[in-house]
Amino acid sequence: MPPATAAPAPSLIQLYLAFQAISLRAFGGVLPWTRYELVERRRWLAEEEFTALLGVCQFLPGPNISNLSVAIGTRFHGPAGALAAFFGLYTLPMVIVLVLAQGYARYGSVPAISGALNGVAAAAAGLIAAMALKMAQPLLKGRPWLPLAFIALTFAAQVGLHLSLLWTIPVLASLSILLLKKGE
Questions:
Q1: What DSSP line would sit under the chain, residue for residue?
Q2: By CB neighbour count within 10 A (0-12 exposed, 13-18 middle, 19+ buried), where does 85 fall?
Q3: Buried (b) or exposed (e) across 29-59, using 16+ Cβ within 10 A?
Q4: For the whole model, what pTM was predicted?
Q5: First to last CA, the chain
Q6: 50, 56, 6, 60: which is closest to 138 by C-alpha?
Q7: Structural contact between residues 140 and 147, judged by C-beta atoms closer than 8 angstroms
Q8: Among 80, 83, 76, 84, which Cα is nearest to 9's?
Q9: Distances (CA, A) of 64 to 53, 173, 177
Q10: In a 10 Å sphere around its CB, with 0-12 CB exposed, 13-18 middle and 19+ buried, how is residue 130 labelled?
C-alpha cells in the first residue's frame, strides 16, 4: 500500500540524495534526522507510517537505520529503491570513517580530541531522547497510560530483573497487541 503523504513519491536519485544528506548531518545519531527529513521536511511518510516502519525494523537483525533505509527504498521503488537508499546512507560516511580512523590513530591521545569526542557522544544521546519524545506523541493519543506502562514494564524487566531480551520483547509485544485490540 503506498504511503498516504502530501508529497509525491521520490525518484531513485532523490532517495539516494536524501539518505546521503541524512547520514552526513546525523553522524552517530541518524534516526532523529531520518524522521525529520522524511516525515517533517519532505513529507514522504506520515508520522504513523514512520513509527510503524521503525517498529518493524527494530525486530529485524542489523542496524535499525539500515533496515529502515531498505524498507523505505523498497516501499517507493522496490529493490532498486532499497539499494539507492542504502548506498545513499553509507557511501560518504564510510569514506569519512576511514579518513577519521587515520586521524584518530595519529592524534587520538590528545586531551582536546578526547574531550571533543565525549561532547559529541552527549549530543547524540540528546538527539535520541528528543526523537523518542516526538515519536511517543502519536502513541499517547487515546490511552496515554498504555505506552507508558509498557515502557515501565520493559525498563523494569531489563534493568531491574535482568530478564533476557529474547523473552521480554515477545511477551510484552504480544500483551500490548492484545490490550490494543481489546480497546478498539
A1: -----SSPPPPHHHHHHHHHHHHHH-TT-HHHHHHIIIIIIS-SS-HHHHHHHHHHHHHSSS-HHHHHHHHHHHHHHHHHHHHHHHHHHHHHHHHHHHHHHHHHHHHTTSHHHHHHHHHHHHHHHHHHHHHHHHHHHHHTSS-THHHHHHHHHHHIIIIIS---HHHHHHHHHHHHHHHHHHH-
A2: buried
A3: bbbbbbbbbbbeeeebbbeebbbebbeebee
A4: 0.59
A5: 22
A6: 50
A7: yes
A8: 76
A9: 10, 18, 21
A10: middle
How is residue 72 written as a grid cell?
A: 523505505
Integer CA distances (angstroms), 12 to 38, 79, 81, in order: 14, 11, 6
| Distance between CA atoms of residues 22 and 30, nearest Å | 7
* Per-residue pLDDT reduced to its tens digit, 106-149: 887 888 988 888 898 888 888 888 887 787 777 677 667 777 78
- Amino acid 43 reads R
